[in-house]
Amino acid sequence: MRKKIVAGNWKMNTDLEDGLKLAVAVSQKVTYMNYDTEKFGLIIATPFTHLHPVGQVIDTDKVQLSAQNMADNESGAFTGETSAEMIKSVGATAVILGHSERRAYYGETNETLTKKLEIALKHELLPIFCIGEVLEEREAEKHFDVVKSQIDEVLFKLSEEDFKKVVIAYEPVWAIGTGKVATPVQAQEIHAYIRELVVEKFGQEIADDTTILYGGSCKPANADGLFSQPDIDGGLIGGASLKADDFIELLNIRMKY
Ligand code: PGA
After folding, report:
1. How far apart are CA 31 and CA 33, in angstroms?
2. Of residues 108, 133, 137, 171, which has the active-site annotation?
3. CB 179 within 8 A of CB 217
4. What is the arithmetic mean of pLDDT over 43-58?
5. Mean per-residue pLDDT for 213-238?
6. pLDDT tens for residues 73-88?
7. Are 37 and 69 in contact (CB under 8 A)?
8. Among 55, 63, 47, 44, which residue's Cα sits nearest to residue 12?
């Protein structure tokens, strides 16, 4: 059965000192919690500069370390970029790909993301692949089509074996950092649709094993409604991942259902 995951996306927040404090606080809280780490996962995606030092202070049996982005080339003359190999070499084992902020502000396209996804998988990083529609698309009721094309043009180009190694994060862009969370019904509807697309492409068994996270203003106050839905397997958490108590509370809520 698919893994339930709470993943924190710190974005461009915290200097190293504050980042270490946050990571230690998260790790200390979770290290004494008794649960099956095969069933439930906790991930923190820190800025690149923090990956190595954070990796030294967390309980890596309980907290998985992730990057927030990765180069679309393997090595060479790409000033300012960070490769999959570099990310691996500092102890991270996951990477967020295609976050809407990367798509909107840094021009990431389905083509670049296809390359990134292949490279991440080649280097055995767990990709957390983000999809989701913007407000105008939702208002025009195009959200199903948008999500379908983001999946068709990137994820469904993968082989079945590779697809099984990906976590999907559905994040309606209008709900990210805005405080406007999707209702549980809205989120469940599109998660169920995404799972149905996977059924059509790869079959029921693989669809049942695919982890699909919700992201966008998810916090302890609204997580029960979301995480209790049958097709919402956890959350990709921005703002609330910057407070250790809230973040761990989200894991506790995830484990209730
Ligand atoms: P938010 O961010 O929880 O602050 O809305 C979520 C995300 O962008 O991954």
Report:
1. 6
2. 171
3. yes
4. 98
5. 98
6. 999 999 999 999 999 9
7. no
8. 47
Distance of CA 88 to the CA centre of its chain: 17
Q: What are phi and psi of 69, to 5 degrees?
A: -170, 170
The residue among 118, 102, 36 whose CA lies nearest residue 68 is 102
Q: Are 238 and 199 in contact (CB under 8 A)?
A: no
Q: Annotated catalytic, 99?
A: yes
Q: Whole-angstrom Cα distance, residue 190 to residue 122?
A: 29
CB of 98 shorter than 6 A to ligand 1: no
At 165, the pLDDT band (50, 70, 90 cuts) reads very high
Measured between alpha carbons, how far is 68 from 75 in angstroms, rounded to an integer? Answer: 18
d(CA 135, CA 3): 30
3-state DSSP assignment of residue 168:
strand
- Inter-residue contact 138 to 173 (CB < 8 Å): no
CA 237 – ligand 1 centroid, Å:
5
- HSE on the CB side for 48, CA within 13 Å? 13
When pLDDT is averaged across residues 95-124 and rounded to a whole number, the result is 98
Measured from the Cα of 239, ligand 1's closest atom is: 4
Residue where the block lists tokens 């991440």:
120
